[in-house]
Amino acid sequence: MIIAVHGPTGVQGAPVVSQLLAAGHEVRAVARNPRDLPPGAQPTIADLTNPDSLVAAYQGVDAVVVQLPLGFDNGMHTQAESVLKALSTNTIDHVIFNTSGPYPSRTRGIPFLDARFQLIRDLPGVTPTASIIGPAALYNEILADPATTTDTEVRLPLPAEMPVPWTAAADVASAIVDLLANPVPAQLIAGPEDLTGPDVAAVLSEVRGREIRWRTIDLAEHERLMTPYIGAELAAGVAGSFAVVDADEVDPGLIRLGRTTLRDWAAV
Q1: What are the domain boundaries of the chain?
Q2: Residue 243: CB partners within 8 Å, gap ≥ 6?
Q3: How would residue 244 be classed by pLDDT, with cut points 50, 70 and 90?
Q4: pLDDT per position as a tens digit, 72-103
Q5: Residue 94: beta bridge partners?
Q6: 2-267 sits in which CATH class?
Q7: Whole-structure pTM value
Q8: Measuring CA to CA, which residue among 29, 41, 114, 48 is closest to residue 86?
């Protein structure tokens, strides 16, 4: 199959591209600057704010994997609308949307979440087959962020006692490849273990060979720690997103377990 993949060079998109190529598919790597791609991926220049460029990128493909970038301004709505307009112009048999995080079931007044809800709501109207996928909770890759994990501690605005099914991006990528052959309307990928904060710290301590502690922080400190790495606007948005995720929104019937444990992920 010919698959167009958004965000092909990102932490979430890169494993999708690699696994699609390994499965024998042809990949169009869609980005404003598609470089540093694995051998075999076809660089395809397009802009999420320009529907005409997306129309060209989608021509002749069998499926599209949509992944929106991190953003918290009204430009997120423009990107969602551009994708929907381009899809309505082409006839794409299957569109897979990776929410990349929380699975919103309603608007929240937060562009990051509302643009995702817009795609979840409207994709079935522009493609014969729409599949929504994403992590059931948090990506392991968050723990690789230097603002989150230091040599001595893991610091996040999560209760230490809360069990989290930490999910590897590679497991979501594997599920995306599987959806091409066996499409379902929605699926959430959870890690094979539910880990509390101290559990996470213990795993990282074992892998790194030094003691790492868990520290629950408030949203203001999380925003402050993130700002030097991603800027004030994105940091405020990331911190705020932790405040609006309702655990009871996750439908247990949608969950499929991944295979990568946190220990296996951290050891790579």
Answers
A1: 2-267
A2: 157, 219
A3: low
A4: 787 899 999 999 999 999 889 999 999 988 77
A5: 63, 129
A6: alpha beta
A7: 0.94
A8: 48
